[in-house]
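Hi D.,

Good news: the full-assembly prediction came through. Inputs first.
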Amino acid sequence: MKPFDYKRAASAEDAIGAAASGATIIAGGTNLLDLMKLEVMAPETLVDINRLDLGQITVSGDGLRIGALVTNSDLAADKTVRRDYPVLAKALLAGASGQLRNKATTGGNLLQRTRCYYFYDTAMSCNKRDPGSGCAAMEGFNRIHAILGASDHCIATHPSDMAVAMLALKAVVEIEGKDGARNVPLDDFYRLPGDTPQHETILKPGELITAVMLPAPVASTQIYRKVRDRASYAFALVSVAAVIGMEDGKITHAALAFGGLAPRPWRNDALDRALVGAEPSAALFEKAADILLEDATGHGGNDFKIPLARRTLIAVLEEATK
Amino acid sequence: MKTDLTINGEARTLDADARTTLLDALRTHLRLTGTKKGCDHGQCGACTVLVNGRRINSCLTLACMHDGDEITTIEGLGEPGDLSPLQRAFVTHDGYQCGYCTPGQICSATAMLEEAKAGWPSHVTDDVTSAPELTDAEISERMSGNLCRCSAYPNIVDAIREVWKDKQ
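Then the structure:
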């Protein structure tokens, strides 16, 4: 690990000021310290935000405000989350291990980096780690890589489970920076790689995630289905978060989000729209999968994700509407 | 930099480079070698310790981030002649072969039983609104952050199940 200066932020302003001057914010550190050990990331200054008062889950209007430092364990164990937003509890519990969930935070989970092997291996080319160096995954082992939203410059996937559920719940990210606070829908928070895969979110230098807001709960069946190489403690090959409302045999609310498929937690407006107002049927679910996978592209090792995503989506829709 | 820690009930002051992980602080600086370094990347769980009662991977956190925290290592759970219930059950059920992962397994299980007691659900809990029974499947899922390359898993589950039943 490269040497760095360590500072403890006394306030959000303190953290924002340090980050604006180039410091890297550390919260749980479970991903950042791993990357620092491998020298994939080498911050000159770390600003520790763990002492800030951002660790509360509070009712906010009809919804819920989750402080950026709420740990993944506390969020998954929260009674309101389990009752009103079960897809979020399920997604959190499907991720990482008990030890990691005790450290990993809400803000950090959103900002975790891809687990692409070539991003982690500093001997290999990677446009995300070293812009302009190329993408070794393109012709390499790309079993875990993206089939949607990728570019010629980067086919890495976003690894979060939590963010996939939050996307299906239409979460909003609360951000503070030097120029004040702003709220950004999670759907607008992530960028696609294009020709700048090093820029993953819309956060500006010095901005700090302070909370994630969930809107009022929807009467719905909520499912998180994660398909992976082993039954526990593995990243998703394909995951589907579904929030489906039904009335009189028709779908009244549909919000689907996907993990393991794309450089960001993925969703598709047209897919949700095709479901709302319709009666569940095999033909409808096939059509939904057609919409999702219309632009899907495999790179060899990950070709299997296209049929796997289709089958997983259909299975989830069958379960949510039965 | 200086960091004040309470380790196994004893106040200790660490003076170490900011890069020092909690794991290296325990083993190298404070000579508490019960906590083991396996992968050093948060994947194996051999380094599991309790911080303020919660289990974490001590390899993936900096010691300086824990100023004022209470750390419990395997040495703090029990010692020869005065074993903790889980330490005793691991011996009874032969919950190891080489023993390298055992301190992490026991620290992890110690906190995991508290999580279960608090009614936390897990990935294999059918209804996340309920407080689940601690079945063998629940124990396995909740312990998936602790690898055992000797694959003593069946005996580890036996040991944990026994302590859980005794707690009820």
